[in-house]
Every structure is written in C-alpha cells, then in structure tokens.
Design brief:
The protein is mainly alpha-helical. The protein folds into 2 domains: 147 residues, Helix Hairpins (Orthogonal Bundle), CATH 1.10.287; 65 residues, no CATH class. The chain has 6 helices and 4 strands. It has a 4-stranded mixed β-sheet. The structure holds zinc ion (ZN). Zinc ion binds next to loops.
C-alpha cells in the first residue's frame, strides 16, 4: 500500500513542478505583446514627426514653385508694358504687376518662416529618432531575454515530462487513471487527511469510519466532498509502517 502511495506522491511532485513552470510561463506571451506594443508606439510617434516634416517640406516646395511662377508672370507682363497703347491699359497692367510683386514678397516671407519651422521640425525628428533607437535597444534586449526564458521553460517542462512518464510507470494503473481524471480539474490530486479527519484538499471532514480505515490500512480512498485521492498523513510520514 505504502509503495503505491509513494509512487503516486512522486508522480504528483513532478506534476506540481510542471504546473508551477507553466504558470510562471503564462505571463510570457502577454509580456511579449506588451513589448511589441511599446515598440510600435515609439515607431508611430517617430513616423508622425517624419510625416509632419514631409508635409512642411511639401508646403515649402509648393510655395517656391508659386514664387517662380509668379516671377515668370511678372517678367512676361513687364515685357508687355511697352506694347500698351493707352495710358489706361498701361496703368492697369502696371497695377497687376505691382499686386503680383507684393504677393511674391508675402510668399517669400512665408518661405523664410517655413524654413524656421522646418529647422525646428528636423530637430524634433532627430530627437524622436534617438528616442526610438533607445526604445528599440531596450525592448530588443528584453524580448531576447524573454524568448530565452520561454525556451528554458519549454526545455524544463520537456525534461519533467520525461521524468513524469517514467514516474507514472510505477504507479498502480487504477490509481493512475483516477489521478489523471481528477488532475484535469484540480491539482494537487493526492492530499493527506489530518487529525481529526480533515481533508487537506477541501478542508472538509471525512467520515470517522473512513479516516480510521485510512489510518489502519495506510492506503488511499476518495474524499466524499472533493473527490481527491486521500490518505492518512501518517502513511507517508511514518518510516516503514507495518
Ligand atoms: Zn476533500
């Protein structure tokens, strides 16, 4: 009886280790996702600054093109001034030229202002690039560390599963079947009953008759309340009983 119990207790010890490892590894996927999110956020912050810069450059380019176009127009109009026959036509064209020149002046000032904004924006992009590089470095390191942990945990679980397979071969077949059925729902499956007859799995008292039998046979039974496999605590603690 005692050997059967010991074999099952050994198996359960392995199962508890596997469960603890799996539980510890449970958070790894979420941690990886969080790191990915952090990196993505830093990347989109950088991309937003780059987009702003590109937009400003486009604005400046458009403005410079407009200035060039306006200048061409003014040159053309100026060459036509001498062809004007009436003073009224001359005056009208001269006025148009004046307006175009003023507009050009305004646009030239805008280009200067845009140039300043662009310089500031270039600095902002540079700062964000450095920020992103730092996040990439740190997150990259953390991801590598985490992946190593996952690999290690997997290897440990595999090792324990080999150990489990070996341990289960010496467990009584009927007991093992019962154990595996309960194990799908709860762990530990095998629990001691302590005086005055309390199941350590559910803290309920087992019937006195059952407790007495467990103590005298040093065998196993099923807890009527939680259906775990129970044994009298002295069965495993006592040096070689009977
Ligand atoms: Zn119980």
């Amino acid at each position: 009886m005692r050997e059967k119990l010991k074999a099952l207790a050994t198996l359960q010890q392995v199962d508890l280790e596997i469960a603890a490892l799996r539980k510890a590894a449970d958070i790894f996927p979420k941690q990886l996702t969080d790191l990915d999110k952090e990196l993505a956020a830093a990347r989109s912050a950088l991309e937003a600054e780059r987009a702003r810069l590109a937009d400003l450059e486009r604005q400046k380019g458009n403005l410079q093109q407009s200035i060039t176009d306006e200048k061409d127009k003014v040159r053309k109009w100026e060459s036509r001034l001498t062809e004007q026959r009436s003073t009224r036509e001359y005056a009208a064209l001269a006025r148009e030229i004046d307006i175009a020149k003023k507009a050009n002046q305004t646009m030239a000032e805008e280009v200067v202002e845009l140039g300043k904004t662009l310089a500031t924006q270039r600095d902002a992009v540079k700062a964000k690039e450095q920020e992103f590089a730092a996040v990439q470095d740190r997150v990259g390191g953390q991801v590598a560390e985490l992946k190593q942990k996952v690999t290690d945990a997997d290897a440990q679980v595999k090792e324990l599963e080999v150990k489990r397979a070996k341990a289960s071969t010496v467990v009584d077949v009927g007991l093992l079947r019962r154990y595996d059925t309960v194990r799908k729902k709860r762990l530990p499956v095998l629990v001691p009953v302590l005086a005055p007859g309390t199941c350590q799995g559910c803290n309920m008292n087992v019937p006195p008759q059952l407790y007495n039998t467990l103590r005298s046979t040093l065998g196993t039974d099923i807890c009527p309340s939680c259906h775990r496999i129970i044994y009298a605590s002295e069965a495993l603690e006592a040096p070689a009983a009977r």
